[in-house]
Amino acid sequence: MDRLSATDAGFYYAETENAPLHVGSVAVFEGPAPSYGDLVRLLLSKLPQVPRYRQRVREVPLNLGRPLWVDDPHFQILYHVRHTAVPKPGGPEQLRNLAGRVLGQRLDMAKPLWEVWLVEGLENDRWAIISKVHHCMVDGVAGTDLMQIMFDLDPNAEQTAPPDWSPQRTPSGLAMVAGALTETATAPLRQLVHSPDALATGAKGLVGSARAAVNTVPQLARQALTPLARTLTGPIGPHRRWAWSDAQFEDLRTARTALGGTVNDIVLTAITRGFRELLTGRGALGADTVVRTMVPISVRKEGERGSLDNRVTAVFVDLPVGEPDPLARLASIRSQMDEYKRTMQAVDARSIISMGDYVAPNLLAMGVRAAMQTGQMWCQAVTTNVPGPRVPLYVLGKRMVSAHPYVPIAGGTRISIGIFSYLNEMTFGINADFDAFPDIDVLSAGICRGIAELGELAAAKQPAAASR
């Protein structure tokens, strides 16, 4: 049995009826589709590599400790693997509509927190897998590693027979309380024994954080006075709209080379164009308006790839949607991201995150739930970029041709953009509250135009540079 980390427990506690906190994806494959039974047997053979997929969350009575991962004695894979189809020939719109409904539904919190849907009926003899996994199980980077475990790198990979499995006994409520109280009392001492410099490292991280906070006070004050796109935040309903846009990774890299910055800077600038068009259509665009987006940042070390807990922190970037010049938009985003990089170097983010392990579990639960119910007005969107595999992936010998990410929304932030790269393609998966974003396609198309706009500027700059 493992105990949820403070970060993972926060994602678990934040789940509400109208804000399911699972991440997901839609992967499209070359046909013909495998049988449902073949997919079930494949997943059964892979589960020993990801034991979390047979475990469920068990809360400690009275929240005296963070929840535990325990084996589900009634685990039944047929519940988690579903089979559906769209009317032939199913195009992108039919797949998006189906995926929006599936991904918008909550997972059963009393069972292992994942689902896989086999979708048939797509045009060009293709089929798809819709996958869902709760954020308390896995962050984006670990999710990419999980995809490589569940999928094959070789189209001719042999499939092993599913091994037998027996669940470990679930502890009683009394045993869980006793274990939680013991851990609360002894965890700091154990930490010191195994890592004598743990407190010093944590204290150093806090000092660095305090210094960084002092340095960023002017920026925070400026953000507090910045006119925000208020129409993007508000109550979240139970239904979702979902769309996606695609781009060639090479086009983004070419723009980066010609215009400067990073690929992430180019991506955020293209997204800024999308939000600019959306707010223009709503009549809500001012000359100084910004869309503030939370940008999660992985603090996972190279040796930790493959672990399935969350190792993330976040920064807040003001997308200058009111700025008409795309190069000025890029310069603004580059400046902010460069400043955040300098700040992050001064802070041991991992130490700050780990300090959450010492927060009283009942206070952690109440605090997260209160924050989600209260909502917030500080940021209007979530934008997360997860680098995916640059090699082909296969399921039962069928090549994956594309993958589209799904990032949850919560806490008054009614739209999220998940960015995922696979082979030479980058896709933008846009998840939004159904009632608040009837114009989601305006944002999706605007992102494409933003990429094309930066590509044209890059092309115009390259001949000028070559002629010098």
From TrEMBL:
Transmembrane annotation, as ranges? none
Looking at the record, the residues that make up the O-acyltransferase WSD1 C-terminal domain are 310-450
Q: Tell me what organism the protein belongs to.
A: Geodermatophilus amargosae
- Cite a single GO MF annotation: diacylglycerol O-acyltransferase activity
UniProt key word Transmembrane? no
Question: What's the protein called, per UniProt?
Answer: Diacylglycerol O-acyltransferase
Quickly give the catalysed reaction: an acyl-CoA + a 1,2-diacyl-sn-glycerol = a triacyl-sn-glycerol + CoA
Instruction: Quote the pathway field.
Output: Lipid metabolism; Glycerolipid metabolism; triacylglycerol biosynthesis
**Top-level taxon:** Bacteria
UniProtKB keywords:
Acyltransferase, Glycerol metabolism, Lipid biosynthesis, Lipid metabolism, Transferase
Q: Which residues form a coiled coil?
A: none
List each copy of the O-acyltransferase WSD1-like N-terminal domain by range.
4-267
GO cellular component annotations of the record: plasma membrane
Q: Which family does it belong to?
A: Belongs to the long-chain O-acyltransferase family.
Enumerate the InterPro entries for this protein.
Acyl_transf_WS/DGAT, CAT-like_dom_sf, O-acyltransferase_WSD1-like, O-acyltransferase_WSD1_C, O-acyltransferase_WSD1_N
An example of a Gene Ontology BP annotation on this entry?
response to hypoxia
Enzyme Commission identifier(s): 2.3.1.20
